[in-house]
User: Fold this.
Amino acid sequence: MTEYEEYEKAKGIYLGFLKFSAVGDRISGVDFSRVPTLLGLNRNDYLRFIDAIGVKDSQEQKEKADEFYAVEYPILKKHFWKIQNELFLLGIIYNEGDCGGGFLKEIHLTTYGKKWISNSEPSPYLAQRYLDRLFSLAGPIDQIIRVYAEEALNTFHKGCPVASAILLGCASERMVCLLVAKFPSQLTKKKIPDLEKDQFGKILKGFLKTLKELHEAKEKAFFPEWDDVPETLSIILNVSEDLRIDRNSGAHLNFSPLTVDAVHAKLLIFPKFIEHSYRLLNHWKKLGE
Assistant:
């Protein structure tokens, strides 16, 4: 396990305890939102915790506790304060001390934190899980898209939403270019922009217009027999245009500020964009075989 993978694993453990406390679950006498509780967690309290989250078999409880204290708890304690600092800077948590302003004791989710911790989609705040999910959606993903996506996530974690938005726009542009390159032009007289000669704005506008017209004309050869073809096209059309606008906004001095919340929302929809784009791309590849 690399240092980065270890850190992401520790963050997942930390958030598991925090989510348990945030939804109102309590074990009598144990509050997992307290720093001293997490840093001094005894075995009996941990056994009560896993029982409360649904692990009822005593043998399974013992095995989980053994693994937790042998593997997971040491890395949680190792990375604890780094995780705290990251989530604090990202606006996910706040931490308050006692009435005298002493040692920080209690962790609380912000209003924003409560929203994203309940989201079932892989969160951009859990970087490795997010990337694993993204890269598993469509088989092998283009290396250039991978690099842009990883860098977009990295800059987002460093509190640079403008840089993240620009990189997402670059990843989206690459995805559109891959689609244009595999467009089955032999099936229609309609023309699409030239990748070699035209600027990307013209390529995107012309390509999306052609896609929409083909679908409205019920040119079924271009689209697989999916029930969600309209959803697929809607996601490709809307997200690619949205990310292009964000990229251009971030690249010019007169842009309107791109907030962390706004870029977080784009990161959440980006895997869907890649998934649906690759479904169409792979279908077109088969048509060309």
